[in-house]
Amino acid sequence: MKNTYDESLMRDLLESQKSEITEHHIYTKLSGKIRDPHNSDVLKRIGRDELRHYEFWKQHTKQDVRPSRLRIFIFFWTARIFGLTFGIKLMERGEDQAQTTYARIAEVIPEAKSIIEDEDRHEHELVEMLEEEHLKYVGSVVLGLNDALVELTGTLAGLTFALQNTRLTALAGLITGIAASLSMAASEYLSTKSDESGEDPLRSSVYTGIAYIGTVFVLIIPYLIFSHYLVCLGLTIANAILIILVFNYYISVAKDLSFRKRFFEMVSISLGVALISFGIGYLIRVVLGVEV
């Protein structure tokens, strides 16, 4: 029987059909890469549901629709590289538009409401099933990142004006940063060991140390490449803002937290400390008459 849907509704139906078959392939591919049997089974079940949804839309469009290979590639590898939680939740963020489309379709095809209910159930199941080790230690990563950003950005700003020599600043910054990272890792180990959070003290210290030392190297790189101290300081501050931007976006997606508030809070603290240290470095140079 030929359908009698208008052009706008048919476009919505085909768009929904394409989305369902695309997500079917994404969930199915990911299920084969998940070691946890429970998580893998849930992904397979959701993948089968998406295929069932695709068949439902096909009954109304009377057409076969190919999945978006680009979208499959992007979200599959995003989940593989940045973690299942981040990849899936990033994909689920696009569900808001799909929900609006489904609501329009449901006005003409009441059975579409069951698809909406399935999509809501998927979100809850995904939130419940997604347990990744690195997300349990977000607090340790935040500690390492935040301390490195605040302490080293401030230290580099002070040293930049006190020394006005990029190589000496890089050397002093590296020594300070590496020593501080070891100190922070040790402190995190002792702190985690003394509480009852259930986290592994060694892993907590490793996550803190890696986050700290990684931030140190990113902040110091400009001093190893460029020769003008003010250019280096500007690039270091830009790198600090970029680290804050990327990290907070990742956490806002993976942990469903506010991006804007956390981003501006970390930027304000880091730049505030850098500005104060910048002034202190200048005053010390003038008062002590240091010439390097």
Q: What order do the helices and strands come in, and which of them pair?
A:
Layout: H1 7-31, H2 37-61, H3 69-82, H4 84-92, H5 95-106, H6 112-129, H7 133-136, H8 138-163, H9 166-194, H10 201-225, H11 229-254, H12 259-288
Describe, in short, the structure shown.
The protein is mainly alpha-helical and 292 residues long. Helix content is 83%, strand content 0%. It has 12 helices and no strands.
The radius of gyration computed from the alpha-carbon positions, rounded to a whole number of angstroms, is 26 Å
What percent of residues adopt helix (DSSP H or I)? over 70%
N- to C-terminal distance: 87 Å
Determine the structural class based on helices, strands and strand pairing.
mainly alpha
| Count of spatially separate domains | 2
Describe the model.
The protein is mainly alpha-helical. The protein folds into two domains: 7-131, Ferritin; 134-288, no CATH class. The protein is 83% helix and 0% strand. The protein has twelve helices and no strands. It has helices at 7-31, 37-61, 69-82, 84-92, 95-106, 112-129, 133-136, 138-163, 166-194, 201-225, 229-254, 259-288. Helix 1 (7-31) packs across helix 5 (95-106) and helix 8 runs antiparallel to helix 11. The mean pLDDT is 81.
